[in-house]
Write a structure and sequence with these properties.
Layout: E1 16-19, E2 29-34, H1 44-57, E3 66-70, H2 74-86, E4 89-95, H3 100-108, E5 112-116, H4 121-135, E6 139-141, H5 149-156, H6 158-165, E7 172-176, H7 181-193, E8 198-204, E9 238-242, H8 244-258, H9 264-279, E10 285-290
Parallel strand pairs: 2-10, 3-4, 3-6, 4-5, 7-8, 7-10, 8-9
Antiparallel strand pairs: 1-2
Amino acid sequence: MTVITDITELIGNTPLLRLKNFDVPEGVAVYAKLEMMNPGGSIKDRLGDMLIRDALDSGKVNPGGVIIEATAGNTGIGLALSARKYGLKAIFCVPEHFSTEKQQIMQALGASIIHTPRQDGMQGAIQKAVQLETEIENSYCVLQFKNRVNPSTYYKTLGPEIWEALDGNIHTFVAGAGSGGTFAGVASFLKEKNPAVKTVIVEPEGSILNGGEPHAHKTEGIGMEFIPNYMNESHFDEIYTVTDENAFRLVKEAAEKEGLLIGSSSGAALYAALEEAKKASAGTNIVTVFPDSSDRYISKQIYEGGI
């Protein structure tokens, strides 16, 4: 067994699990990258560590400084995990309606939280974070929604891990988008390796990718109020807009059939992956991503359809 000296050494190289108990056509395989196995419990541990290292290496913040971000929670946890390692303080702006569990974890890791009004959405949290950067000396607002370290993180780590695990034998990639960094980074990597790989982006109702008006939804962690500057239509071949009902139904089915405790964004991604499987021919490998687990959404009644 390997001995490590810091918890952040466990970031990445998460398991890729073949799902065996869902009804898919014979010869079609659906795999899930289990990102809840990162030490902070989500896919955003990868991003948090990269953002902190970039900020220090580029001089955007100096030792002893303050990292600021607008986040629904998982990016905050990832940032707080690595900020602790490098002796930085962390302040996060969080819209009021997001999971209390994630906020408690951020605070346990030493971060301070400022709530912004629910009706202002993520844009309101971003505006507050940018304002704080102007008021606090030796601070840096990382702005994951604009920062190209975001897609670059997943291009350099998650994409290669998926490709290597299947020896390049991947036909369809399915993932949700919140900041869009995971999807843009992995899709770019896979398309470079093989332009024939189909890339499927998943959003909840209330997101704007399919041309709808933004509105509230229960599926947490994905859904766009605006398109980040690092994402464009070349990244995705198809869009699935998944209802809250279907996302939460798949959360329950994943627990019952596979013993997997997944968050609602994972449920939405699983729904889309299974829909893709229905159309696939024998020999097709479909890979999706489970960003986090259900344990940080118990207060949101994740197994009762969400609130």
